[in-house]
Amino acid sequence: MFxxxxxxxxxxxxxxxxxSDWFHVDTASDHANASFIDRANIVPxxxxxxxxxxxxxxxxxxxxxxxxxxxxxxxxxxxSSRLIRAEAFDGDRRSKGVEDIKTEWAVAAKGTQGGTIxxxxxxxxxxLPDKKSLGSALPWETGRAFF
Length: 147
Fold this sequence. Notes:
Elements: H1 3-12, E1 22-27, E2 33-38, E3 43-44, E4 50-62, E5 65-75, E6 80-89, E7 95-100, E8 106-107, H2 113-122, H3 140-143
Antiparallel strand pairs: 1-2, 2-4, 3-4, 4-5, 5-6, 6-7, 6-8
């Protein structure tokens, strides 16, 4: 009798994301930043691309920003990506707010930090199988080891 209510609620209830599971993917060649991907939440979107959360920890506070958390859309076939959401953190690790953005698609060339990140996301972590989880918290402290 109430079966249709359960189906209706399931249809409108938000999907719960898995607990975060951060992995170091690459550090910029100039050591300006280290990039981390939440491997547990690499998910397909309606366009058939993958979306993932990326945390970019800066080696030095720059223009008042110590880190960024991005939601990035990856077009694995087109070997490109774009930012769709951004959150900056100040030197005290406080969020400066989240902003929905949609940048232009950028090709992620092999051998670059962007190419390594794209390869990691598109393989759902399989391109760097020896990487160890840094846990569910944003990798502020553990991330410093990669500079």
